[in-house]
From TrEMBL:
Transmembrane segments: 65-85, 97-116, 122-141, 153-172, 192-208, 220-240, 252-272, 284-308
Sorted UniProt keywords: Membrane, Transmembrane, Transmembrane helix
Key word Manganese present: no
InterPro entries (alphabetical): Bact_Transport_Assoc, DUF418
DUF418 domain segment(s): 192-325
PANTHER family given in the database record: HYPOTHETICAL MEMBRANE SPANNING PROTEIN, INNER MEMBRANE PROTEIN
Native species: Actinomadura monticuli
Pfam family, one: DUF418
Highest taxon of the lineage: Bacteria
Protein name: DUF418 domain-containing protein
Amino acid sequence: MLTPLQGAEGIQGGKGGESSRITEVDILRGFALFGISIVNTVGISKMPTVDAEPGAAYWAYETLLHQRFFPIFSFLFGLSFGLFLDSVRDRVNSPRFVMLARLGFLVPFGALHRILQPDEVLLSYAVIGIAVLLPASFLPMRWVAVLGGGGTLLGVALGGGSLIIPGIFLVGLSVQRYGFGALANARVSRMLSAWATVLSLALALDVWQIGAGVGSRTPLAAAAGMMTAAAYVVGIMLLVRTRGVGRLGGLAAVGRMALTGYVGATVLILATGHFINLGEAPRYGVAFSLGACVFAAELAFSVVWLRWARYGPLEWLWRCLTWWRIVPIRKSSGA
């Protein structure tokens, strides 16, 4: 899976409330990386998801993890596309050309990563971003929202997976255009009501999916995945509002280094695969534990690295390629 990778770098310090909104986006991105690390552990290790009859562990994986975090990343990619475009609009004459370069240089990252992880989505994100998000940036907000909603529903009807990417990219962009801050700063009572609603729908769809006995790549599973992802997003935003950003700062650090964490997790999973063979039978406890440990390593590295650096290693390289110059990476360096 990937990353919504359009990081928040260079956006802080903008218009009022921008910095806090970016922190919440990074927290959501870091939370999504947690789930993706576990899901990718199952996929990369080629662990069979079911042996005989599907059990509780299988359905926990299918209803709580599989295809539940990918929609969040796709949504954040579209949202962050708009944030990045706005951040450079006043600094360059051709902001869309800079965005084209940014997405274009994501292609080699994805192509190289696909050698290690055939199911990775960086390459797909880059190509679809160029084909869908860039043209959509010329459209009125209303049309972006309509096309995003229609495209997402079509993708769900066709079974989900990568088919939801174009639509949910546009949904993320439309949310950014209408104002993500308005959602993030909504009253706690309204957020509680929204969370209760989407959580109830998610539970109903997940129970329906279990009762129907259908796995991924079906409209029902795709709908359940989208609603569960929405419940996760609203729940995390509510937690940020009630518990404070400080307690979730680690997730924000991972979110700021999503590209590094995503690619690094693949390397860690492949390396540990030589010692832990998950390809013979479903061993969900081992797979979940390994994925959690991989994410813990991502989190620890991100927190330590960002004490002195402004960007993650791959984020820095990506930024240098985008601007075609060496960008200072140390916090003590000039911007």
